[in-house]
Amino acid sequence: MRIKSQKDFWSGLMFMAVGIAFAWGATNYTIGEGARMGPGYFPLLLGILLTALGGFIVFEAMVVETEDGEPIGKWAWKPLGFIIGSNILFGLLLGGLPRFGIPAMGLIVAIYGLTFIAAMAGDEFKWKEVIILATVLAIGSYLAFIVLLNLQFQVWPTFITG
């Protein structure tokens, strides 16, 4: 068989690899059963579902004709760097790095940092839109994690809250 869509073929393989890794990692936890689910039940099912989805995408890439074979383009290094960097920055701002004297800045500052750095990955950067998005994400995250789920972690920087 010939690959008729390179993009779909390789993305399907990536889905399958991640799904297998999740399912395999879930076996380290108690799986349980449908009525009494253990901590590994959901990751196992999610891994199986992701693997099946990847298999379907790979199959479709081998069967469905495309115009030009949908070749894979060059790596988009700029967006990749900004997205990965924004996630690293989020972790650093949320928890800090006490070993190096970097204090935790809290959830709100971390979300603003994540949003601003990730927005630089695109072709356009509009300050007003990014500020609105960061504010909506910060309010939504505060409501979801602090108010509704009652999770206990720092919301504001220490120099503000004392």
Automatic annotation (TrEMBL):
Pfam families, sorted: TctB
InterPro entries for the chain: DUF1468
* Residue ranges crossing the lipid bilayer per the database entry: 12-29, 41-63, 75-94, 100-119, 131-153
Q: Which residue intervals define the domain DUF1468 in the entry?
A: 10-153
- List UniProt keywords, sorted A-Z: Membrane, Transmembrane, Transmembrane helix
Q: Which domain of life is it from?
A: Bacteria
Write the protein's name: Tripartite tricarboxylate transporter TctB family protein
